[in-house]
Every structure is written in C-alpha cells, then in structure tokens.
Amino acid sequence: MEWLDALVDYGVIGLLALLSVVTVGVGIERWCFYRGLDVGKVDDARELELALTDRLHVLASIASNAPYLGLLGTVLGIMLTFYRMGLDAAIDTGKIMIGLALALKATAVGLLVALVAVTLYNVLRRRARVLTLQWEMRHGNG
Question: The dihedral of CA 96, 99, 103, 109: what is its sign?
Fold first, then answer.
C-alpha cells in the first residue's frame, strides 16, 4: 500500500500544485493582455468578447474541480490510515491521528487552489466586463 501513500503525496498534491501554477500563469497572462488591450482598436464586439474570455474557462474548471481532487486525496489518505490500522495489532491512537491529519492536507491544498482560482476568475471577469462596457461606450452601442 505504499503506492497509495505516494499517490496521495505525489499524485494528488502534485497535480494540485501543477494546477496552482497553471492558475497563476493564466491569471498573469490574462491580466497583462487586458492591460495592453486598446478597446478602441477593436471593431467587432464578438471579436472583443472572444479575446477577453479566452482561457477564463481554465480558471473556472480549476476552481470547480480542485476541491474534489483534494477530497480524493483525503479519502485515499484515510483509506491508507485504516489499512495500516488493520495491519497493526496494537492500535496506537497517535499514529491514527497523525495519519488522519496528514490525509486532510490534500483537502486543504485543494481548497487553497480553488480559492485562488475563483478569486482570479472573478477579478478577470470583472475586468473583461469593464473593457466590454468601455468598448460599447466608444462605439455608441450602450
């Protein structure tokens, strides 16, 4: 069952760490794009909307799925703790508590990744809406 321990530590938490890097990367890229965009040079509202919302679905997907990945890691960690309890005839409550506490780290990481992704998504959606409204005011469509 050591593979399960490695799966929790390197698989689930590693995947969540990768998703956090993707989240920050997409957030920075989108923010830089928004800062450099001149809405006055865009002629079509649909073209503007496509450009502004590009890759935001990545943030939304990470935000909605990161807690579930964390929960998966916690369930696997709890399963591993119960398995170890079954192998050991003498039940040491300290080992049980440590195992359960470590299992919860995956949920904590998942929630942290989700909070960052949701926050970035909301900030970027708001900025996209502001840029869209500025375009509409300049083009007399508002």
Answer: positive
3-state secondary structure of 40: helix
Write the burial class of residue 129 (CB in 10 Å: 0-12 exposed, 13-18 middle, 19+ buried).
exposed
95-114 pLDDT, tens digit each: 788 878 878 999 999 999 99
In the numeric block, the tokens 């040079």 are attached to: 41
Is this model's pTM higher than 0.90 or not? no
Report the distance separating Cα 31 and Cα 84, nearest Å. Answer: 47
Between helix 93-138 and helix 13-36 the angle, nearest 10°, is 20
**What is the rounded CA–CA span in Å between residue 45 and residue 8?**
46
* CA pair distance 56, 64, nearest whole angstrom: 13
Give the C-alpha separation, 5 to 141, whole Å.
58
